[in-house]
Amino acid sequence: MKRSKVIPVILVAAIAAFVIYFMQDNAATDEGYAELIQKERTEMEEFMKSGAGSPFVRDSISFEGLKFFPADVRYRIKAKLKPIEGKKTVMLTTSDGKEQKYLEYAFAVFELDGVQNRLLILEVMEMGPQRGKLFLAFSDETSGRETYGAGRYLDVKKVPAAKSIELDFNLAYNPYCAYTDKYSCPFPPRENILKVAIRAGEMSYHL
Fold first, then answer.
1. pLDDT tens digits along 116-145
2. Smallest Cα–Cα separation from 166: which of 24, 22, 33, 69?
3. Per-residue model confidence as pLDDT tens digits over 32-64
4. I want to staple 108 with a disulfide (CB 3.0 to 4.6 A). Which of 33, 79, 100, 163 is the partner?
């Protein structure tokens, strides 16, 4: 075989080997990620079933198990963090007709399904152990259909000077009001009503 033909054959073989390795590595990563999400969900179900602070335990509600979308790494999103100058106080209406006070923190900007999205992240202002922590409530095109109609929550961490933030919607969860009306749960701000379907995280308990 001529030298000129040997080099392309070697190159093609090398590329094929890399693609196979990359696919296998990604498959292993996705599998490990799915196991991590399942672990989080199992712990959540165990708490809801028998934890002292569970609404099912507190209010003696029959627990029938939580429902979730399959874990999908596509919904583990790295969003750009856009700071807000001249931060203002935001009052969110709650499910029992009251209000809770928050402070604007930043916007999380990301693209999903070809749609540019922007979520307002808030900072808790009320006195207590939660003061200063971040709060993110959102609704999307699944709300009222596959997921709780009043929206879901997502825990995010405050990292000083960060320019990006991870939004893992596979960990999105329902407020306690999704199970019983005995709780006061803030509704998402109008900025956080997304025009895309987030088929990730916890589904409606009463499907």
1. 999 999 999 988 888 999 999 999 999 999
2. 33
3. 999 999 999 999 999 999 999 999 999 999 999
4. 79
Tokens of residue 154, six digits: 């997502």
The token pair at 38 is 């399942």
Ranges assigned E (strand) in the chain = 76-83, 89-93, 99-112, 115-124, 134-135, 137-138, 152-153, 164-168
- pTM score: 0.84
Residue written as token pair 């003061």: 131
Task: Please tell me the total number of residues recorded for the chain in this structure.
Answer: 207
Facing residues of 168 across strands?
76
Please name which of 108, 104, 128 lies closest in space to residue 118, comparing C-alpha atoms: 108
Q: Where are the domains of the chain?
A: 1-62, 67-192
